[in-house]
Amino acid sequence: MGKSGSKPKTKNLLPDYVNSWFAGRGWTLRPYQRQMIEAFTARRSTLLVAPTGGGKTLSGFLPSLIDIHQTRPSGLHTLYLSPLTALANDIERNLGAPISEMALDVTAESRTGDTPSAKRRRQRVKTPNVLMTTPESLMLMLSYADAARMFASLKLVIVDEIHAFAHTKRGDFTALALARLADVAPNHISFGLSATAMRPEMLAEWLGGSRGATDIIRAKSAPKPKIRIMKTKRKTPLGGYMAQYAVPDIYKAIRSADTSIVFVNTRAQAELLMQMLWEANDENLPITVYHGSLNREQRRKTEAMMAAGKLRSVVATAALELGIDWGDVDLVIQVGAPKGVSRLLQRIGRSNHRLDEPSRALIVPSNRFEALECRAALTAISEGVLDGEDVLAGSQDTVIQYIVNCACSEPVLPDSLYGEVTRALPYRHLPRAQFDRLFRFAVDGGAVLSAYDRYQRLREDESGHFTVAHPSVRRRHRMNIGVIVEAARLKVMKLHKNGKTGRVLGEVEEHFAQGLTAGDTFIFAGELLAFVRLRDLIIEARAASSGQPKIPAYAGGQLPLSTFLAEGVRHVLSTPESWRTLPAEVREWLELQRRFSILPPEDKLLIEHFPHRKARATIFYTFEGRRANLTLGLLITRRMERTGLNPISFMVTDYGLCIVNLEEIGDSAAKALFSPDILGDDLEEWIMESSILRRSFSHVARVAGLTEQQQVRGRATARQLAVSANLIYDVLRRHEPDHILLTVARRDAERELLDLKRLSDMLTRFSGKLIFKALDRASPLSIPVITDVRTEQVQGSGVEMLLAQASLAEDADKLIEDVRAALA
Amino acid sequence: MPPLPECENDRTRIESCFAGEAVVLDASGALYLPDHAVLIVSDLHLEKGSFFAARGRPVPRHDTRDTLARLARIIGYYRPSCLVCLGDSFHDIRADQRMAAADLLTLKGLLAKCRDWVWITGNHDPQIAPTFGGRCAVRERAGSIDLIHRPEDGAPPLIAGHYHPKCRVRAAGRSMTGPCFLMGEQILLMPAFGAYAGGLNIRSEPIAALFGPEGARRAMIYREKLWFLD
Q: Quick one: which of A14, A113, A444, B53 has the most CB atoms within 10 Å?
């Protein structure tokens, strides 16, 4: 067959009913959709990278629908895995149309935690051809004795939004479930679908597991998006995180677009920006807010209104990033720095579902450092470079859960389980000895004292196989499958006028409720509410008309600056030619820095030291992200305390670390503070004293089946009967400090909380490459760092928060004036 | 009465008064009545770890050893003539079958150090295995004070356990929780002494209901120090 043969082949590829269905919709088969059908026929596992809205999901399902219709299998044929329950449900709905319109003989159902148990039981007996599910539900199915039978006929696994799985504990969990599936159903191939091209080779390897990297199909990329930094009437402030200065301009942009999405980085920012936009909303445009703390109904309502074109704009967090269909969005506004290039592209991809037109987007930096970061991101996008992370060694508590899961299904041999586990990419380097320790823990808790080893979770039979020691082990394990441990949450209910019944708006973290007293007003779901009382784990509130609102401070909303983008910012700083497109005030700020001190060079690390508010400030411009800077700050202040330099406090931003102390610090002393050996004893002591390890242990204990996620919270009996992870932690530290779970918790803490790897890479890289500048006052570059308020931690009233930012902005302006005067 | 060791002001113990009797609250969670030379501990929940372990939960089992070691320390300090365990000393009635031989030996050593040892029965341990020694009682008296497991079962003034009271305070933006003594006019509620005993917030219904509107003084244990909160 020559070139001429390729066209008829395409035609033959599709049965008539598919051809006419496509024709009926005025669609043509996209090249990558054809390639996916070919991949299925050739039984090649494949990763498809295609933009959102380009029929990506259909590309995965089309070959499967055709094959099912032709071969009429009696059981499960295709398994679809999604990171979100909502997405699985959404796909079930969307798949209904092609199935019924083409009159296909295909059964397709979803199965998630929300599926009624009767239906779930039925699904195990009479399995639909296509099953849409989440990793947790898959793992649960794999724990049943009939797993092998259920999955025997499996031909295809589709992993949607695959990039959302890599790099996380949940991704490790999913990789293990897929490794198990490869064993139970050896005849299937895997399709991965992703909208961002973040390290596709790595994702292909992750998806392929032991079978090696899968093929990769890249859709022809859409035209480069049109992104620019938003021009604003008022100047970009030196510091701050709320972009209040740009609200009139953001409002104007919303008005000029048909439908827009305003992305912010945290839930608190979403609520506050929503409030500020409402105040500016003279035309009463339909604008609403969308984030992960709102309840499902509220979110569904917003999604439906958005799809129907009834909303002009939504202020949203990352909760909206994954591929649920959002109708025609023609403008995306990113408020605050993007923190990562891939993330920014993913967000921008939400605008414009027509592939041949460029997406339109505006970025609004909330301070001048963020302007640099936005500039670096735009350069990366125009050059087509993306950031991504390496695969980290998988979390080990997940392995324990996996071992028990397998033993629930059938008797297992440690040797073969080890083989399975190491076939998953995150675990390919897991040493056998460590696996054996984890296995031992799964068996009997890893008891070290012979007097105690009578009690077992798994029992060994004569042939060396292990199986659950008691049916209750199975029951309890199944109730606790998964690795997501949520902070305790309370529902927020807005009471009706009668003061008795109400409507649930969503959930907030428990600690927010502890700070409320009756009458306090707060903003939630874009509404001003007054706290009435806490009842049965529900915060009851009524509509309020005025008052100084508090903003819930949500945990874990902040993303650290990606290493890649940090490089970009360093590069922008050291190449004045790239400043052209920066706002004038940002250019002037950098120019002042160059004249007054020095611009941080790309390959060196700048330290500045100057008198500040009756004390001395030392700034380390690391650009390594807030988390790494926080750890560095804790370590350096410890060392300063020991060497008598009297540290008072420190502040961190994504860009730098500021330490305030009483003594003057010279060149060599400052450089000595920043040395790689700080990761030795200081780190050790600090980790032991802080509560970081304790928190990490409680998570690990839950995943490893030591404790249970409390289903019935607050019930006296339930609480008293459980053993809390906290108490176990104390006892273990005293009596068995090398316990396997303490080791696992330690690894997790280092990986997830401290960004230690990033920190040690940086310390090594800049070792001997430090520049020290002693100055007589604060430098322009330091001003955003020394006047930083961490709004995410402010629990006071929203108005106070803005006042604090305003007064700091004044401070900052005064400091800049000082520099100008000194240079004049 | 043996002379009370000098009270250093390091918050390891606080002298106070309850129902007309002198009491010493100890940061370990024990209570000492100097006029009667009686040392009281409550809710040891010995063998709670093995209780879970026996049901296939891989809970590490050092809790009994830990609890006994702390008990040994305070017995060595106060040298009481009588030790009263205020109930739920064992997590269940089969604890004796699971206790390690070494731990049983430690426990017997402690019993030998006190002239009198009373196991008040609780809901977890309605019977005490004779292996352990000591004597068993539903209630005990110290002067005018009733010593009992559940406060509802006694006649005030009384000292009781059962609820594992725990409280939370917020200061300087931080939140701290710890087990606590609750001292009302007529009822003194003891914190749980056992390593795995856990706690129940004092604002929850059953505890709050005990003290009525006048409430109770709280002495919270935080990092092995004792703090009166009012």
A: B53
Q: What is the CA radius of gyration of chain A?
A: 28
Backbone angles phi, psi at A120, to 5 degrees: -65, -40
The secondary structure of A389-424 as a DSSP string is -PPPPPPSHHHHHHHHHHHHHS-B-HHHHHHHHHHS
Helix A397-409 vs helix A169-184: crossing angle, to nearest 10: 30
- Return the CATH fold of A226-382: Rossmann fold (3.40.50)
Q: Do the bridges between strand B217-222 and strand B225-229 make them parallel or antiparallel, or are there none, so unpaired?
A: antiparallel
Contact by Cβ (8 Å): B200, A719 = yes
Distance between A721 CA and the closest CA of chain B, angstroms: 8
Domain hosting residue B169, numbered range: 13-229
A453 in B contact zone (CB under 8 Å)? no
Q: Are residues B60 and A444, on separate chains, in Cβ contact within 8 Å?
A: no
Judged against a pLDDT cut of 90, whether residue A92 lies above it is answered with no
- Give the start-to-end residue ranges of the domains of chain A: 3-218, 226-382, 397-478, 489-543, 597-674+766-823, 688-757
- Number of helical H runs and strand E runs in chain A: 32, 25
Contact A607, A670 (CB under 8 A): yes
pLDDT at B226 over 50: yes
The pair phi, psi for residue A413, each rounded to 5°, is -105, 135
Q: List CB contacts (< 8 A) between B197 and chain A.
A: 720, 727
Q: In chain A, whose CA is at the least distance from the CA of B48?
A: A723
The verdict on residue B6 lying in a domain is no
Res. A187: pLDDT tops 70: yes
Where do runs of H (alpha helix) occur along A102-238? 117-125, 135-142, 147-151, 169-184, 200-208
Whole-number pLDDT of residue A695: 76
pLDDT at A52: 64
CA dist B53 and A454 (Å) reads: 9
- Residue in A401, A468, A509, A723 to test binding to B, most B beta-carbons within 10 Å: A723
Q: Is A487 on the interface with B (CB under 8 A)?
A: no
CATH number at residue B197: 3.60.21
Residue B36 lies in a domain: yes
What is the number of domains present in chain B?
A: 1
> B175 at the A interface (CB within 8 A)?
yes
Give the tens place of pLDDT for each residue, B55-81. 777 888 889 999 999 999 999 999 999
Q: Can you tell me the distance from the alpha carbon of A548 to that of A525, in angstroms, rounded to the nearest whole number?
A: 16
Interchain CB contact of B29 with A (< 8 Å): no
Q: pLDDT digits over B151-199, tens only?
A: 999 999 999 999 999 988 866 445 678 999 999 999 999 999 999 988 8
- In this structure, of A139-143, A198-202, A511-515, A679-683, the range with the lowest mean pLDDT score is A511-515
Which one of B48, B50, B51, B59 makes the best mutation probe of the A interface by having the most chain A beta carbons within 10 Å? B59
Q: Chain A contacts of B63, Cβ < 8 Å? A: 727, 731
B100 shares contact with chain A (CB less than 8 Å): yes
- Whether residue B5 lies inside any domain: the answer is no
